[in-house]
């Protein structure tokens, strides 16, 4: 049975102004061949109450996988039929995130149980890769690299990890410690994304730092942000520019390799916005969610014109939308919400 929440639609009026900045229609075709003009949100109610569904990922067959962090499971949604299938984990696993490989195998972060798990969707069997260091107690966010291996953050353990998929070997990079109320502690490596050179960039949520790991040397290079910034997640555009959301100060900011911090922009809800989930589409438009306001609100930011292009409330309210996945094949941004829904925001291209 399909469980759907009402659909909300946004027509982003800001693109008319953006087009005039480009100049002629010919220039627009060369420099900004498409833009987003409409965002439509649809949500499915997850049939496992109060389970905090989060961190969806589209598998090779088009089905959408996600974890139930509060109820220790992974599940898959068939958007066409609305059917769900659940795969239970051990109690206390606290899965935080998952990704799916080209063969359909599901890799999840056992956030409370110091492992990365592998689910066989056919049998439901789970294979665990335990962390080699007791400090790596809380694998957090996983991401594929171009070779089919995995980079991941370890928030509490203050590490960035690399998993060689074939050998199952795990390497760990220490993140810098920062001063906290209890002394020195974790800089909380959090959101992770890869650039076109196959290098992971990491938002350090407990300080004003964006880091990048050189895969050849496993050296961590850091770029300082303005005082008081707390980057939670980030995305990387087609020009390899790093756009991060500042959770504490309500901003979106820009970092470039070699040049570091460049500039930042106040979000519509300002310091109350608490930006959290973020994704970037193939038109280089960043879609972030302001979670400090209810209902949660999608906000679009065009990285070419560096202008906001519209906002749209989440139909269910959202509660807190923590992480999002962009599927370029369908122009869809998938998200999980604390109100027990899984949602799809469809980006409609505007031809020029």
Plain-language structure description:
The structure is a single chain. With 352 residues, this protein is mainly β. Helix content is 4%, strand content 54%. It is built from 2 helices and 31 strands. The strands form 8 sheets. Strands 1-2-31-30-29 form a 5-stranded antiparallel beta sheet, with no helix packed on it. A 4-stranded antiparallel beta sheet has the order 3-4-5-6, with no helix packed on it. A hairpin with a 6-residue loop joins strand 26 and strand 27. The protein is globular and about 50 Å long.
Q: State the share of residues found in helices, binned by percent.
A: under 10%
- Tell me the strand percentage band: over 45%
Tally of helical segments: 2
**For the terminal residues, how far apart are their CA atoms?**
40 Å
Strand order of the largest sheet: 1-2-31-30-29
Number of strands: 31
What features would you highlight for this structure?
352 residues; mainly beta; 5-stranded antiparallel beta sheet; 4-stranded antiparallel beta sheet; 2 helices
């Amino acid at each position: 049975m399909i469980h759907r929440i009402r659909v909300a639609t946004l027509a982003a009026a800001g693109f008319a102004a953006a087009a005039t900045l480009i100049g002629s229609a010919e220039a627009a075709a060369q420099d900004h061949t498409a833009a987003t003009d409409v965002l439509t949100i649809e949500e499915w109610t997850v049939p496992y109450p109060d389970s905090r569904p989060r961190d969806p990922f589209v598998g090779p067959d088009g089905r959408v996988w996600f974890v139930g962090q509060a109820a220790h499971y992974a599940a898959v949604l068939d958007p066409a039929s609305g059917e769900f299938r659940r795969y239970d984990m051990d109690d206390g696993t606290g899965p935080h995130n998952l990704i799916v490989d080209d063969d359909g195998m599901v890799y999840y972060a056992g956030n409370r149980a110091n492992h990365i798990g592998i689910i066989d969707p056919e049998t439901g069997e789970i294979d665990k890769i335990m962390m080699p260091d007791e400090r790596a107690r809380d694998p957090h966010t996983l991401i594929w690299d171009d070779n089919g291996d995995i980079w991941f953050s370890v928030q509490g353990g203050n590490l960035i990890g690399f998993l060689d998929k074939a050998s199952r070997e795990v390497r760990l990079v220490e993140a810098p410690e920062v001063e906290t109320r209890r002394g020195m502690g974790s800089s909380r490596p959090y959101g992770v994304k890869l650039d076109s050179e196959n290098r992971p960039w990491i938002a350090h949520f407990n300080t004003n730092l964006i880091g990048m790991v050189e895969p050849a040397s496993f050296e961590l290079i850091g770029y300082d942000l303005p005082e008081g910034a707390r980057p939670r997640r980030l995305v990387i555009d087609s020009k390899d520019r790093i756009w991060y959301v500042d959770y504490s100060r309500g901003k979106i900011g820009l970092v470039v390799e070699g040049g570091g911090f460049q500039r930042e922009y106040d979000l519509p809800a300002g310091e109350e916005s608490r930006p959290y989930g973020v994704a970037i589409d193939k038109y280089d438009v960043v879609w972030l969610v302001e979670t400090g306001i209810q209902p949660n609100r999608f906000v679009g930011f065009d990285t070419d014109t560096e202008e906001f292009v519209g906002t749209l409330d989440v139909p269910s309210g959202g509660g807190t939308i923590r992480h999002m996945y962009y599927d370029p094949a369908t122009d869809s941004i998938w998200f999980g919400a604390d109100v027990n829904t899984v949602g799809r925001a469809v980006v409609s291209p505007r031809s020029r």
